[in-house]
Design a protein that fits this description.
mainly alpha, 2 domains, 66% helix, 17 helices
Length: 482
């Protein structure tokens, strides 16, 4: 079920009414309702894949208890590895099996050996990368003795399948989300209205900005061989804006929806395109995934507290694995490796933690130095996004060659100029709102503290009008494919 669909517009109020007006006095009933709603939400796409979530839930619930009960270090480690291998095994089969088989066949063919192989004709289950990592963190934290396992199967099942963040995150830790299903929740009007504002802002990002940028980006990327470098630059810019607004828009809707049910999810984006270097960008982009890799991969490998060679190795590992997490294609691996190359100069000069505060703190506008860093960082990320969007490596390199050709300075080739100008106006307004709201959890949060009521409601109604005007496509979110 899509957040930007009529189905969800009907589904959400029904669950909300049942949750607060029918089952409000019974925590077990509320959790059971959330679990049922989550399974309906996921099964709406393809009910057959509910079995994967049910199996993953049962495995990690059982192994979590078993790890906690054992005092034998070797047995605890064995149980942990079984849990990890089962989870990653399913992820590997559905997401990476064909990739490894195809590359194995290609590798042998280079040496003149032709292998006969069969690939799997299967659909990638939506959200499998997200809920797999969520359950993995649960058993790992129990093994590290940072968390006690739950014996409440319903609460644990809701933790795994909570519908607002099930399909595309944020990837929650059990230490934050699971305890919230143990406690009786009371309706909080201010939190609920804040949640509605965040949902509205997320829908604006997705429907008005991302989906319209997608139309231009798709047209340009699909016909890149015939277009000028200036047009290819527009395509790369549109995709960069698309993927940010699409994914952060999903996160805003997920976090806002959770607030309607008295549940708090972690912030997943913190205005990453206002970053002054790549290290700051990765502290602000897909925060739940980047911190997951930091805590469960980078730090166990030694992080930066090892020799220079090992530090460099660890950086490449975490970025390449992050790229591979996104999909079974060499384009994602190169995208991750490119970000590692961007990051290395900061690490080697020990400047990777220079910008921990908000840009232009206590000022309306950045300094020239900040603006320069922000523009350079944005240009580097736009270049890397070309690999992320391209069909394959050949397409990516051809796109970049065309981009940096003499035609870069020619007039862009785009037919629907009127629509492009309208979209440019929306993008400019969008980033202005984001800039002045960059100190908040999301751009239009707490507007009542800064704006007069007439201006505040004028903005709300303008955003709503834009959403209604551009609605109707019901395009999937980009990260559904990951």
């Amino acid at each position: 079920m899509l957040f930007n669909s009529i189905d969800f517009a009907i589904f959400l109020p029904i669950v909300f009414i049942l949750y607060w007006f029918v089952f409000k006095n019974n925590l077990k009933s509320q959790n059971t309702l959330l679990l049922a709603a989550s399974y309906v939400f996921y099964g709406w796409w393809d009910w057959r894949f509910l079995g994967l979530i049910l199996f993953s839930t049962l495995v990690d619930y059982t192994f979590g208890i078993a790890i906690s009960k054992s005092n034998d270090p070797s047995k605890r480690k064995w149980l942990l590895w079984v849990s990890i291998l089962v989870n990653l095994g399913f992820l590997g089969i559905f997401k990476y099996y064909n990739f490894f088989i195809d590359n194995l066949v290609t590798a042998f063919s280079v040496f003149g050996n032709e292998l006969q192989s069969n690939t799997l004709d299967i659909i990638l289950p939506v959200g499998i990368s997200f809920y797999t990592f969520q359950t993995l963190s649960y058993t790992i934290d129990i093994y590290r003795k940072k968390l006690q396992p739950t014996k409440d199967y319903i609460a644990f099942s809701v933790f795994v399948a909570f519908f607002p963040q099930l399909v595309a995150g944020p990837i929650e830790r059990a230490t934050n989300l699971l305890p919230q299903f143990y406690k009786k929740r009371k309706f909080n009007y201010s939190e609920a209205t804040e949640g509605m504002r965040q949902i509205q802002w997320g829908l604006f990002k997705k429907i008005v900005i991302a989906d319209n940028c997608a139309d231009i980006a798709n047209q340009i990327f699909n016909n890149s061989a015939d277009l000028h470098g200036s047009t290819l630059a527009i395509g790369a810019l549109c995709f960069s804006i698309q993927i940010y607004c699409d994914f952060s828009g999903y996160s805003d809707i997920a976090i806002g929806t959770a607030k309607l049910f008295g549940v708090n999810l972690m912030q997943n984006f913190n205005f990453p395109y206002f970053s002054r270097d790549i290290a700051e960008f990765w502290r602000k982009w897909h925060i739940s995934l980047s911190t997951w890799f930091r805590d469960y991969l980078y730090i166990p490998l030694g992080g930066s507290r090892v020799s220079r060679f090992l530090s460099v190795r660890n950086v490449f590992i975490i970025f390449i694995v992050s790229g591979f997490w996104h999909g079974a294609n060499w384009t994602f691996i190169v995208w991750g490796a490119l970000h590692a190359v961007y990051f290395l100069p900061l690490l080697l000069r020990k400047k990777n933690r220079n910008h921990l505060d908000v840009i232009a703190h206590n000022r309306n506008f950045p300094s020239l130095r900040e603006a320069g860093g922000m523009i350079l960082t944005f240009m580097l990320t736009v270049l890397a996004w070309i690999f992320f969007r391209a069909r394959d490596l050949g397409h990516a390199f051809d796109y970049i060659n065309g981009l940096f050709s003499e035609t870069f300075f020619e007039v862009p080739q785009y037919v629907d100029n009127t629509r492009a100008y309208y979209l440019l106006g929306f993008i400019i307004i969008f980033f202005m709102i984001e800039w002045f709201g960059r100190r908040e959890a999301f751009a239009i949060s707490r507007l009542n503290n800064r704006c007069k009521p007439i201006l505040r409601f004028a903005l709300y109604y303008a955003i709503l009008a834009a959403i209604v005007l551009f609605s109707g496509k019901e395009q999937e979110f980009i990260y559904f494919q990951f």
